[in-house]
Structure formats: structure tokens, C-alpha cells
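User: We ran a pulldown and think these components assemble together. Before we commit to crystallization trials, I'd like a predicted model of the whole complex to look at. Sequences follow.
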Amino acid sequence: MSFLDRIALCRRWDPAAYRPFVIAGRRMGRVRHEVARRLSDFPRVFEVGEDAVVLNPVLGDADSRSRAVEEALRPLAEAGELGGRWRREAYPVVQRWGEAPLMIIDRGLVPDLGLRAFGVHLNGLVEGPEGLQVWVARRSKDRPSAPGKLDHIVAGGQPHGIGVRDNLAKECAEEASIPAELAARAVAVGALSYRCERPEGLRDDVLFCFDLTLPPEFVPNNTDGEVDEFFLWPVERAIEAVRDTDDFKFNVNLVILHLMLRRGLLNPDDPDYQAVVEGLWLGD
Amino acid sequence: MSFLDRIALCRRWDPAAYRPFVIAGRRMGRVRHEVARRLSDFPRVFEVGEDAVVLNPVLGDADSRSRAVEEALRPLAEAGELGGRWRREAYPVVQRWGEAPLMIIDRGLVPDLGLRAFGVHLNGLVEGPEGLQVWVARRSKDRPSAPGKLDHIVAGGQPHGIGVRDNLAKECAEEASIPAELAARAVAVGALSYRCERPEGLRDDVLFCFDLTLPPEFVPNNTDGEVDEFFLWPVERAIEAVRDTDDFKFNVNLVILHLMLRRGLLNPDDPDYQAVVEGLWLGD
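Assistant: Here's a predicted model for the assembly, 568 residues in total across the polymer chains.
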């Protein structure tokens, strides 16, 4: 089935093109060889070897690491010389959400260094006599990332300094005008992970997934310019789009597969069932 | 948190005590060194080397493999000389449910050869004004496996030759007298896997998980002698038992953690959240 093609797309990267990025003795990211060569311009920050890029151990705490990396790389990012733009959003450098961060870094540098990032995705659902329906957004054609692609009603990055649920509520307000009391009914339903090459660099993401059953009369309204239109689709139509097309943004496919697994929309006797389960979590 | 202790228990085995069991060029199982020595009594069936036990490649199809292995090992199993009893239940030898089996083998031999097995577990739920409740079974004290432990209302092995859903319906009838029309409402909610040493040998299992919301007036009734009593517990009590005790059968803990993840009963901001997600699937 082509569900597995969507998973494969979220695992497509070439390990031979990268070397580990090590902080405090731990591999926290992966750096393309050509990026590593750029980093060798900053020997007091990055110790660039053939086999690894090591953050200078002299930088002994999160504050000094964060400052040194920003000082070195912000000018490059702002000049457009790296894969990412400077985003003015602080991300923690951790392997697991909730750990003490080894440093804080701008979101725009995360894919250049192949660091793990976190996000929230919300399935906006309507359950009624016609069966399960799902709200689908079409991303604005002028977005730098995935223009025109189908998306969740609410999805966003998970910055440092705000809890997952509070971040979800914030995104609910910005992306779909979902009021706080409605957003509070969202149910945390698990997490998934993937690692793949994207135009901005290596994405190594964990997505926290939520289901929110919306009242039938609720209509989402985007306020941050990210969305052109919203559709309310029978879940079967979204499943067909996942199976047969690349219309959804790459990672949204995984969240819909996760929904399908949880809601009995895939049959355990399907020979690909186990591959879908396995495909929703990628270890180190 | 001690949720992670329950996961660790389901991953406890010593790789150094085993060598691979290879069929048709694929590692399909793992055999303890002392079991390997027993298998060397059957050189026309098992090619026992220091690094692996290989099923004789002369046995070129599933039928001939199945017959040869039964002929060699059934007498040992029936004489109680292996970890497992002879169960008279046919299991398929596959890595993923739904693949063409490399052979068919009695369930009792599966842990001795460290082969992958499959099972079904059903969360029997009651949803009402008092919140979510879950039916819990206490296993008979005279069961050979996990006597007296807390269990799901319905759980069982997944034999060859019957679909997952049909097997679930059969177990629903036998273990809890759940009628077919009620069992048909069970929702497939995913799968989990683990690998650990148990008294019977190495368990390398994939469990298909189901949720069934039962009418409040339904009371389960066991007909196969596996269960002594049933309790209807607030889900919080089951969660406490998973967190604080070893009262549940080892693998039931994982299915309850899987339920917790799906139902918003774990907080994504908990630093152990990701470890729980990761802990519910174990790759090869």
C-alpha cells in the first residue's frame, strides 16, 4: 500500500552525507559535511573533525553554549548562507522533551545542525451521524515551508519555555481561532517521530498528537496568515489523500496514519499493519 | 516513574545467552545455548553452529520444515524436557502478521526457539458519569502461566489460520461471554511489542490492542477456567496498580500504558512521556 510510501518519505536521508554533532559527549545532532566545513571557520565554538563536529567542551554550560553558537551562526543565517532562516524562536537542545537542555538555539538553526525538534499536531474532528469528519487546512501559497500543501487545522513547533498543552492552546488560537475553553478539551493521544531531509536541512522531529472533537457548528478561522482555506472532510477522503497523493505536508501523513491506527481505520489483518505501527516511531 | 520499570521488565533478556535461529537465510528466532545443544541431537533438522542455529536448508518449504521440527521436538516437549508444554495450537513463523509463514509450529515451542508470536488484548471499558472504568480479571491460581495475576478481561494468543478479529471474537466468547454482536464493536487501536525472558523461554511478542466500550449493565463471565474473578475499576486504580505494583501480568502493563497514551491519561510534559512511547515498540 502506498501508506508505506508516505512513511518512507519521512525517513529519507543519506547517513553518509552527515557527521555526528556532539555536545557534552552526547550525539545531539547530525551535520552535513559541507555545513561542517562552514563551521570550521569558528574553531573556538566548533571542533570540526573528519568523524564528528564537537561543540568546544570549554563551553561548559547551556548559557555559554547558546551564546557562542548564536554569535557564530546568527550572521550566517541572517545572510541566508545556511539552510534555515533566523526564526527568533528559542528551541531547547534535548533528546527527550522535558530534559534539561544542553543549550538553547534558534529554531532556524535546528535543521542545519540536525538537532531534534518537537511539535504539536491537532486532529480537528467532528463526530456525528455521518461518521467521523476531519478538518483540513490548505497552507498559504506564499509560505516558505510547504506552500499550498494540505495540513492539520492546528500544527506548530514546540519552543523552549512553554508547556506542550499551553503551546497547543496558543496555536489553536492563532491558527484556527479555537477558543481556550474548547482547546482545553483536546486529548493528548501519543507521539510519533521521523527523520528526513527537507529543503531547510535534516528534520529529526517528535510530534505530540492531539484529538479535539469540535462542535458541528464550529468553523475555524486563521489569524496568522498560514492558511488559505479550511475544509471539513469525511475521514475516508483524508485517508484516500494520504494513500494516493502527496497533497498533505509530509509529516501530516504520519499523524493521520496515527489517527487511523487508534480509531480502527486500519485492519490488523492487513499485512502492512505492523509496518505502519513501526513506521511511526524512529529510534536513535 | 515506575511506569518505566514495567517497560524494563518487558525488555529484560540477556542477548549473550542466545544465538540466532535462522530459517531460509532470515533470523527468525533466538535459541539459548543450552537449548542449541539439545537441538544438535537432530542434525538433519538443525545445523547447530557456535554462532547460529540454522534450520537445514534441505527443508525447502513450510510443510517440510513444519513436519521435521514437530518430529524432532514434539517428543521432547511432551516429555517436559523443553521450556514449553506441547499446546496443540498452530502458530505461524513470521516477522510480521500476514506474511507467508516460513513454517507452522506448535505454540509450546515458540519460546524455546525465541520465535515471534502474536496476541490480542482487549480493554473492556465502561464510560459514564463516573468517568472511564476498566474491567480487570484475576487469573486462576491454578494457571500454569501467571497464576493469580491481574489481566485483561479478554487476552489470548493469535494462532495460525484465523484472522485477528475472528480470534478476538472467539476469545471474547470464551474468556468473558461477550456475545459476537458486542465483540464486533471492538475497535482496533494499534499494536505494541516487547522481548523478554519468561519461565517458558524467550517471548518476542506483538500484541494487537482493542478497546471495547461495554454497556454498564454487562457483566463478564468466564467459561474456560482462566479467570477467578472480574472487577470493574476506575481507570485511575488500574493506573496506580501499573505504576506501583507488579499485580498485573507483565505484558498487560504495556497495554494499559498504551491506553493511557491514547486517552490523554499521560501528560506530554512529563519527562518520561517519550520513554513510554518508545517503550511500547521494540524493533528487531
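The interface with chain A takes residues 96-99, 163-165, 187-191, 206, 208, 261-264, 266-275, 277-278, 281, 283 of chain B (CB under 8 Å). That may be worth checking against your pulldown data before setting up trials.

User: Thanks, that helps.
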